[in-house]
């Protein structure tokens, strides 16, 4: 299959939709990308992208009509699969470097079949955010570097092995999805995973269940029922988890006060935030902030600044 590579140099802004060769590569095969610090990359709707930050922070946003309507920050160790059929994805890298592999669903199906030589149905890859094992990240890095050298074909099976291992936990959810055939279950699960990713990108926004239901062509009642059937929790319960996880990141990585963190995470009051946060994590937000500050104080760079 066709495999192209692209190195995006420090500080550049690139729209893949306006680049003929990378755009064709995503249509016919896979595009491997190495992004240097402070790069902005616009990915066209319909492209499935595998993102892996190597250092620094990678922010993924949904770009709808020129405005960003949601954002998700991922750091080293986390691998994200983004897939939105209607809107563009904008990736902004702050410091460090990141790799990505992009292609359409049929291309990913062919690529993932390289591991076990078995034909995989479309879709074969689904949106997710996962803490990837070091071995999986090494295989992704090796594939991208081989692609940059023009010799990625022999690394394709290793990439497929890494992606299939990361996606394996989704199998049970796919099996719980309604549908008379495996193909229909996978197509429906893909739509629900897109909804879940949209929710994760917008944790501070109020839950608009009817709008989410329209994304999967279901009534509101059907959407809530099937969501619970697949994931074992309601949409609102999942949104609360997303809000708490977002709050955890802000508490650890930002200097916002606890009240500001609560508002930025979609909670109307600090009291509600404290209660929900402790229910999910077992500790109050202030305890996490104290632990984060103590951890930062113990790092060599923090000691140097203090001195």
From TrEMBL:
Entry annotated with the keyword Transcription regulation: yes
One of the record's GO molecular function terms: DNA-binding transcription factor activity
Signal peptide location: none
Domain HTH araC/xylS-type: 193-291
SUPFAM superfamilies: Homeodomain-like
PROSITE patterns: HTH_ARAC_FAMILY_1 (PS00041), HTH_ARAC_FAMILY_2 (PS01124)
Keyword tags: DNA-binding, Transcription, Transcription regulation
Annotated InterPro entries: AraC_XylS_family_regulators (IPR050204), Homeodomain-like_sf (IPR009057), HTH_AraC (IPR018060), HTH_AraC-typ_CS (IPR018062), Tscrpt_reg_AraC-type_HTH (IPR020449)
SMART domains per UniProt: HTH_ARAC
Pfam short name (any one): HTH_18
UniProt-recorded name of the protein: Transcriptional regulator
């Amino acid at each position: 299959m066709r495999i192209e590579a692209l190195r995006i140099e420090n500080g550049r802004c690139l729209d893949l939709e306006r680049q003929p060769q990378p755009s064709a590569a995503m249509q016919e095969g896979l595009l491997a990308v190495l992004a240097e610090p402070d790069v902005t990359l616009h990915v066209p709707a319909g492209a499935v992208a595998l993102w892996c930050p190597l250092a620094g922070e990678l922010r993924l946003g949904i770009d709808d009509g020129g405005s960003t309507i949601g954002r998700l920050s991922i750091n080293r160790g986390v691998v994200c699969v983004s897939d939105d059929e209607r809107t563009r994805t904008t990736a902004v890298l702050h410091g460090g470097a990141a790799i990505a592999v992009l292609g359409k669903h049929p291309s990913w199906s062919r690529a993932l079949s390289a591991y076990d030589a078995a034909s995989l149905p479309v879709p074969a890859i689904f949106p997710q955010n996962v803490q990837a094992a070091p071995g999986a990240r090494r295989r992704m890095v090796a594939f991208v570097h081989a692609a940059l050298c023009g010799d990625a074909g022999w690394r394709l099976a290793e990439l497929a092995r890494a992606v299939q291992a990361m996606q394996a936990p989704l199998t049970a959810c796919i099996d719980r999805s309604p549908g008379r055939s495996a193909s229909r279950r996978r197509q429906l699960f893909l739509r629900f995973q897109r909804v879940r990713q949209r929710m994760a990108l917008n944790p501070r926004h109020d839950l608009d269940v009817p709008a989410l239901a329209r994304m999967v062509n279901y009534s509101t009642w059907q959407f809530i029922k099937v969501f619970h059937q697949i994931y074992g929790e309601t949409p609102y319960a999942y949104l609360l988890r997303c809000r708490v996880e977002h709050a955890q990141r802000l508490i650890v990585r930002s200097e916002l006060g606890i009240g500001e963190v609560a508002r930025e995470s979609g909670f109307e009051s600090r009291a509600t935030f404290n209660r929900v946060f402790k229910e999910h994590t077992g500790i109050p937000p202030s305890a996490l902030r104290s632990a984060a500050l103590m951890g930062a104080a113990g790092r060599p760079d923090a000691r140097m600044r203090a001195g």
